[in-house]
Amino acid sequence: MKPIDLNPKIRRVSPLFWVFESLEDDPNFMTRKFFSFDAAYLDGLLYLAVAQGEEPWNGLVVCTSQDNHASLLDDFPELVVHPVIGKWLYLSQQHENFETVALKLARLASRRDTRMGVETGTRKRSGIKNQKPAKTSGQDR
Using the 8-state DSSP alphabet, how is residue 19 labeled? Predict the structure, then answer.
């Protein structure tokens, strides 16, 4: 029998949320849900996200542009290009150095490393465009 969630409004956070502890004192740090991830934002940019689930959704995602992959992969060979979200890098929780590397990446984020951090946009609804109503002249009344 599946357990019943008696309080579904309580926000559930990933057990990997500890990765963000070094960011908590930063006044421009905030967390939000980002799909199935708990995401860390600094100055409004998405830097890191954690999730605990089935691979490849079980670890830390470094939010970056593909232009920065080579440099970050040189500095952190433990990272791989995320197999589903190819624009971001991924560190599996199964990696033997997960804790050490994850904390180093969080410190890098706290220093606002320019290779990290992306803007998140709002999704546009397909088929519906945000249109302002046409102005009518006073003669139409």
Answer: G
